[in-house]
Specification:
alpha/beta, Rossmann fold, eight-stranded mixed β-sheet, 8 strands, 17% strand
Length: 282
């Protein structure tokens, strides 16, 4: 595995790379408050079959966390940076693996550039309101229009480290299977005030994706990309009921539900890798 950087609009984007560039490309898009570190166990399992690239989003992991004066941390702006990153680092259509925040970023890209996509992998990231735990999404439903400073302040005041530990532990079959290094790496990023501010702003932006769900579903129905769903069905935030809407849009989608939580790779990386290889490399 190689550890590289690309500079996009003056922002240094860190990424992990493995596999022969001549193989089919897979781009791994992580969630909040994690980074490409969440794919450390998956990448070696895929590298013999794919050219794998796993970037850290702006303000996360080992990528730059620019001040608000130079980068306004919205999901739309992050998407723009990642579009330019993909133009610079990958050749030809790619398979997007999307988890959590990786979903709204990846689906914005896919629906805008369908010719960039050779396949999609959904891992605990919804394309419909059914994919949310009703209690978790309720606080987001009382707001309309642009995200307010108060909404951003609410997210910045949250204890995101405690929330991260909760997501790693809740729904897992065996707590001893959860890598403490993964939580420690996330905690280190959250101890940086600039990174925490950026991540909180991405979270505040989450409700703006709701209006895009019909567009993403229409994209899936029209283009029918090869689709794999690998979902931890005991995720306390993203409900497995949302998988039905992915299946409705892409009837040929291959679906695999796992008896685990939000970070399904912690317990099921081996089988998820096998499903990816079976779906896209054979």
């Amino acid at each position: 595995m190689s550890y590289r950087h690309a500079t996009v609009d003056g922002i240094k984007i860190f990424y992990r790379e493995a596999g022969d560039p001549g193989l089919p490309g897979v781009v791994l898009l992580h969630g909040i408050p994690s980074s490409s570190q969440m794919f450390r166990g998956l990448i070696p399992l895929l590298a013999g079959h794919f050219h794998v690239i796993a970037p850290d989003f702006v303000g996360m992991g080992n990528s730059d966390a620019p001040p608000a004066s130079t980068f306004v941390a919205t999901q739309e702006n992050l998407t723009t940076v990642m579009e330019r990153f993909l133009r610079e680092t990958v050749r030809g259509p790619v398979i997007l693996y999307m988890q959590d925040l990786g979903g709204p970023i990846g689906m914005r890209i896919a629906s805008k550039h369908p010719d960039w996509i050779s396949g999609l992998i959904f891992q605990n990231t919804p394309i419909s309101m059914a994919g949310w735990n009703p209690e978790r999404v309720k606080p987001l439903l009382g707001h309309t229009g642009p995200v307010t400073e108060e909404e951003r302040s609410v997210q910045e005041r949250r204890d995101l480290r405690a929330a991260d530990v909760y997501l790693y532990r809740t729904g897992t079959r065996d707590l001893n299977a959860v890598d403490p290094d993964a939580m420690a790496i996330d905690a280190a990023a959250l101890s940086d005030p600039d990174k925490k501010r950026i991540m909180a702003d991405y979270l505040a932006d989450a409700r703006l994706s709701f209006d895009l769900y019909p567009r993403w579903q229409a994209y899936l129905r029209k283009y029918q990309p090869r689709t794999l769903v690998v979902w931890g069905e005991r995720d306390p935030i993203f409900d497995a009921a949302g998988v039905k809407d992915i299946q409705a849009a892409v009837p040929a989608a291959s679906v695999h539900l796992y008896d685990t939580g939000h970070f399904a790779l912690q317990e099921d990386a081996g089988d998820i890798a096998r499903q990816i290889i079976d779906a896209f490399a054979r």
